[in-house]
Amino acid sequence: MPIADACAAWAAALAPDRVSRDANVVAKYGRSTLVEAPQPLAVLRPTCRDEVVAAVKIASQHAVPLYPISRGRNWGLGAACPPTAGQAVLDLSLMNKIVEVNEELAYAVIEPGVTQGQLAEYLDDNEIDLMLDCTGAGRDVSIVGNCLERGDTFGVYADRFLHCSALEVVLPNGDVITTGLGHLDAAATNLYKWGVGPSLDGLFSQSNFGVVTRLTLELMPEPETMSVYFFGVEDEQLEDLIEALRPLRLSGVIHTALHLANDYKALAAMEFYPWDETNGQTPLPESVRRRMRARYPFIQGWIGNSAFYGTHDQVQAQQRELKRALRGITRVQFVTPRKLEWGLRALRVLARTRLPVVDRLGTLVERARTMLTLMAGIPSNNTLLGTQWRLRREPHEESLDPLDNGIGMYWFAPICPLTGEHVRRLQRLIEEISAEYQFEPMLNLTLLTGRAALLTNVVLYDRDDASERERAARCNNALVERGIAAGYPPFRCSIDSFRHLGANDSPYWRFVRQLKRAADPEGVIAPGRYSPWVFHDAS
Amino acid sequence: MPIADACAAWAAALAPDRVSRDANVVAKYGRSTLVEAPQPLAVLRPTCRDEVVAAVKIASQHAVPLYPISRGRNWGLGAACPPTAGQAVLDLSLMNKIVEVNEELAYAVIEPGVTQGQLAEYLDDNEIDLMLDCTGAGRDVSIVGNCLERGDTFGVYADRFLHCSALEVVLPNGDVITTGLGHLDAAATNLYKWGVGPSLDGLFSQSNFGVVTRLTLELMPEPETMSVYFFGVEDEQLEDLIEALRPLRLSGVIHTALHLANDYKALAAMEFYPWDETNGQTPLPESVRRRMRARYPFIQGWIGNSAFYGTHDQVQAQQRELKRALRGITRVQFVTPRKLEWGLRALRVLARTRLPVVDRLGTLVERARTMLTLMAGIPSNNTLLGTQWRLRREPHEESLDPLDNGIGMYWFAPICPLTGEHVRRLQRLIEEISAEYQFEPMLNLTLLTGRAALLTNVVLYDRDDASERERAARCNNALVERGIAAGYPPFRCSIDSFRHLGANDSPYWRFVRQLKRAADPEGVIAPGRYSPWVFHDAS
């Protein structure tokens, strides 16, 4: 059997305890928040690049493809599961070295196993005046994995793929290259993305052209000061809000990827789904939604937040501009680290009174503390709490990992022009499809740039309920299919949706397929990943 | 003869008058600022994408490769000339449509023939509140060509390649694709670069994987206000200056690609080489250099300039930060459009007096006017005046195009870490090599990002002087070869230097070569372009 022979060879090349076909081990990697996911054949855990090279060569000899994962937390899009059956997971989490941090030039060289929490802690422990621009996926996710998936962060860098470079890649034939200027051993290898000649980074993102074993990540210099801000609008104000924000995002006054959550999304971060109050009915009835919202006065149709960084003067100027732009739409609240200190002190003093202001201040202080921490580059697993919305059983005692909690989740992240009209049209589409399948539209609007927004939706469902499972899968399918048909394709894609990314005979994918065949004639690396043709051919 | 048959077929597919083997026509395209350049076999001038498709298919049938150019102004790096003999130039300059300008979302869709001057004029004529981020190459150069060469601009966008997207590409097999989200016909096609799945833009930059016939360029929203600034330092202060500027560029206080010119470069913009004063001796003797500098008090070892854009408050805050950072190093002068008006008025009043202040004010006003115009998105051909430094004959009466003036020029644009130490080391290397070959080091330091700088050098030489020609070619070769050996490869490369970009057996180029072969098995598009292996194979 090829897999048995391959595993024997891998065990000899790595170490017996880092190659496994054990059903329990494999099943752990085969967990998914999706309804169904192809199960891996085996799991390999290399500890260094040379072991990856050996693993790739053996995979080629035995015709058992490898599916590389960094930490396997690609929740809602497939987690650690390959898009097709018959692949062995290449788990890179043991390769978790922070190879270098350069404070002067503000970057870190890291391996795929390095997590957000690990890097943030490293910077803190070593008193390095640099900060990580975080995603909302918590402390235990891979940074490299997110870079290669072209994920988005909360802060100034926003676009992770853009802020990484010098990818060290093990190619399907076992060759090792470094992209950008790396192959020329340039002094600026870690400082300039494109290199000279054709630039290859794009080819190694959202793809299967090689195994990335190291890259350089830009870090933000710690600003002189920062200020987080909050505001809310009712849903009918959304277009006006977007039209007011776009010029600021375009001109750079808003210099981060500002996030806006709709009320469902905000409620999910505060409470579980009210199964009792609704008698088990889904989606959330309007009356219950209103009652829940009344419990959290700060939750409106949409609540937005982000931060300004810079010198005192700059932040002041930015605050004034934002206030001015939103005048007549809503009021913005700003909190600096210093103001938070005052709030905490005031809260301690007032805590003994029963003044109603205490509650409101308490909520604001808590929100401000969470945001200030996150926007200062300290990721938190609390951002994962919202995934438990539809959970009916007891949550895991220690872990907020959706996989440990058996959470059903599909993440759909369509990209759309940053105009009120487009965002509204896409919102209506997602709401309509969600209602058809009895899910709440859990929306997050991200001002990725001044031109393009993400309007991400999460379908949260009960994996133990057969009817919910079936509806969730169909809902996700409808979202991706109808989203693309309406002009709003996802900017990242779940492993069961690649076929929607294009027809088999499109010149575009024909070209990509030619390149893939040239780079990986035997299909050794992650067959099917972002490769629609594989699924058309199979059907 | 393949070329005769190909030309006949091209003439039938395009129009007889847009295909030429006429010696005069071909020679015009074969002009170069380099000492030698391979001459094209013929010239084709398609007017639309479909003609490009036809031209590519015919090229394939007759095995005559095509070398696509946009306007052919790649001065100092090869202009319109292919890197190897036997290619026909595919001149896209007749494809010069501004397809769309979207004011709301701040972009333009343009064809390869669109020049900087044309787009700037279009925006002005149509009173569109958007501006072009210009390069210093003047009005008649292609924007698309510069995007694909990954050129750098003066302003906030700095990196042209990053700010273009949705490349429409005619592939070597005649297929047409649009990169990014274009192949999915997404609403955000012109608004988001990476697309979904492997991102291909990088593959079509500095390369030969297809013919780009259209792309989307981001334009800057007109700022509320702007302010240009100037400063100078002596050469021994360069390290201190860089160390002071880096934190500002990293944090975004300096949000443009600030430029610094050394004194030679600044002098070349003011005067011709003083052949009389030096009795024809080169390089410029130190005594003459000092005398010339005395004529321009604003010229120091290095003079820097750039601009701030934003609201009044923001620009004020940025100005304060820059002043503060350079305190103890130098004084910065700021000029807003309003201040320029005052200056012009004062100049008119004072002009009749003979006060010495008039001259100094006059120079400042002129510099300010030039910079304000350029930084407001209006390119000027005056930036090309400096190329005439070593010219001995009369300049062309109307054209500043270096080719029309028979100028000899090699442009070397190495990339280096933005630290005083690295910039100094690279400067010394360039100075040393320049002196060896009797040229002045004409340096321009560009703060491309907060991490990486370009230290570009121009070798200007007399094409009519056999000894100068020989020295210039050897000087360029030494710069590229020793630059790369020292860790400072160029970020763009001249057609006669591709062989320096890597060994034939390097895994990196082996991989690129595999991809190229898959995309273009017959080598129809621009063989040799950024393909070191072609030159190793030939030798």
Structural class of chain A: alpha+beta
CATH T-level fold name of the largest domain in chain A? Vanillyl-alcohol Oxidase, Chain A, domain 3
| Total beta-strand segments of chain A | 19
Please, how many domains of chain A?
A: 3
Strand content of chain A: 15-25%
Please give the oligomerization state of what you see.
homodimer
> Share of helix among residues of chain A?
25-40%
The most extensive interface, with participating residues per chain, is: A-B, 91 and 91 residues
For the record, the CATH architecture of the largest domain in chain A stands as: 3-Layer(aba) Sandwich
Biggest sheet statistics of chain A? 8 strands, antiparallel
Please give the count of helices of chain A: 15
CATH superfamily of the largest domain in chain A: FAD-linked oxidases, C-terminal domain
What does this 3D model show about the protein?
Two copies of one chain form a homodimer. The first copy, chain A, is an alpha+beta fold. In chain A, strands 12, 13, 14, 15, 16, 17, 18 and 19 form an eight-stranded antiparallel sheet that branches. A five-stranded antiparallel sheet of chain A has the order 5-6-10-8-9. Chain A has a four-stranded mixed sheet with strand order 1-2-4-3. The first copy, chain A, folds into three domains: 1-94 and 501-539, Uridine Diphospho-n-acetylenolpyruvylglucosamine Reductase, domain 2, CATH 3.30.43.10; 98-221, Uridine Diphospho-n-acetylenolpyruvylglucosamine Reductase, domain 3, CATH 3.30.465; 224-335 and 380-494, FAD-linked oxidases, C-terminal domain (Vanillyl-alcohol Oxidase, Chain A, domain 3, 3-Layer(aba) Sandwich), CATH 3.40.462. Chain A contains 15 helices and 19 strands. The interface between A and B is large, with 91 and 91 residues.
